[in-house]
Amino acid sequence: MQLGGFSGGILSLCNWFARLAYINILWILFSLAGLIVFGFFPATIAMLATLRQFLQKNDPPVFKTFWKYYKAEFFASNKLGAIIVVIGLILFTNINFLQSMDNKLSEMFYYSTIVLSCIYLLSICYLLASYVEFEQNLKTHIKNSLLIMVYNPLSSLFIIFGFTIVYYAVTTLSGLGFFFSGSLLGLVILSSTSLTYRKIERKQANLQTEEKTA
Question: Alpha-carbon distance 151 to 129, whole Å?
Answer without folding.
Answer: 16
